[in-house]
Task: structure prediction
Amino acid sequence: MIRKLLLLLMLGALASCQGPLPLMHFPDGRAPLNEIFSFEIELVDGPAENVSVDADMPSHGHGMVTEPVVTKIDATHYQVDGMMLHMPGYWEIYVEVTRDNESERFMLPLTLEAWE
Amino acid sequence: MGIISLAFGLSSMMQLSVELTENELRAMLSLSPPQAPAPRPKPTNVFADNPDAAKLGEKLFFLEGLAGEGTTQSCASCHNPELGWSDGLQFAIGDGVGTLNTPAVRNAAFNNFVFWDGSADSLWAQAAQPIESPIEMHGSRYGVLRTISSDEELLSEWQSLFGQMPAVAQDLTRAPHAAPNEEFSAGWRALTEENRLAVNTAFAKTLKAIAAFERTVVSGKSNFDLFVEGLRTEDEELSKALSPQAQRGMKLFVGEANCISCHFGPLLSDGQFHNIGLEPYKDIPPAIGRPGGIEKVRLDLFNGRNQFSDDTSWKANGQMLYMISNEHTVGAMKTPSLRDVAATAPYMHDGRFKTLEEVVEFYNLLPGFPGVGHREETLNRLLLSDEQLAELVAFIKSLSSL
Result:
């Protein structure tokens, strides 16, 4: 279970849609480097049919070495397990939310440093 | 001589041979934390940190003929402490010749996955494979138990740790080897189902003792660590432990050359798998790397999820649950730790480079294309001068245990 939520990060600085943005709750307020971690997604604009998560390092041309699993907690909260951002550098975390057979994709940019 | 303000845990002003940016300084400190890391707990092996198990494991590690009648090798035959816990050879040579360079045992306990392709998820699961490989120790799990049973002292230590050795292991009327493989299948088929389970269980315990010993084989302090300690403690003498050349190499390592992208943390390794784009080597088929490792580890009888593990939960085996193969992992091999790497020549998964100089020269120019998959796009030609390459090597050599 995710530890106490210390920081809420608003998604969607570069979101591909205009809808209300989901929140990501990271354990300890940050995504760790090179460790499997879990986080929680909160859909602030109501329930969805499906939520999926992925992440890439665009400048490296690759994504994660794990495949995260998304589990519904309740109508507006989802648990994401199996995340691992294995290299330092610039990452983009993608959250895709499907409602009424239409998907919206949100992106969270973040940079991990080798000394974190 | 540049002078830098040592913030971030350091309070003094020290004389260095290089000027470091704030990020380079943080990166340097992260490579040598105040407390040396210990291998993480390994819940799949309840004996992992048991000193008695480590003591028995050490004896087994160095025991020639461990794998049973007719075998002559020990684990140390290929993991020789005098040769950096490797063998100094391009390819491992046991009862045959392999196509992979022998990884060092030192610091292997820090890895989530063992072998170049990560085809074992623990040290104890790893130890099973060379014992039964026809080109390595060429014995069997049953042969190992027979070897232990035939030595009164070993048997006594084994039983005091693990309980009664299965009676079948002491039955000299049986064939000396039994394993679920082609060569020793006759002996295996001759065992009852109950006895097979007893043999596998006892073998797994034996492997866990070997792993307990291997967990104690870790790097000691290096000149680089003394240097960093000197900066932290304002000890002028200690801060001289790193030569000016190595200091310049360190700056390149964490900065311009960006080696730290994969060689980060106190072990100077991410423990992950990368295709660095080595060209095909002679007539050896290019290794598939990580995808093959994932397939093998999922099927491994001794992986952390199987019945011989002491904790089969997903919590204890998280990376097994979420790991994936894709086009980016084809040809990917594990990033080795750079601690004590100067002692483990030759280099790369196929031992193609005889020296560290050849290794950094490869990263400098990145010649050719890989035989399988694609080179990780993280890598760009460094295009450093010969002097800078020598500085990088000097830094890497400063990571050797004193």
Notes: Chain B touches chain A at residues 23, 26-27, 29-30, 254, 260-262, 264-265, 270-273, 318-319, 321-324, 326, 328-329, 376-378 (CB under 8 Å). The beta strands of chain B are 2-5, 13-16, 273-274, 333-334. Chain B has two domains: 2-31+221-288+330-397, 51-214.
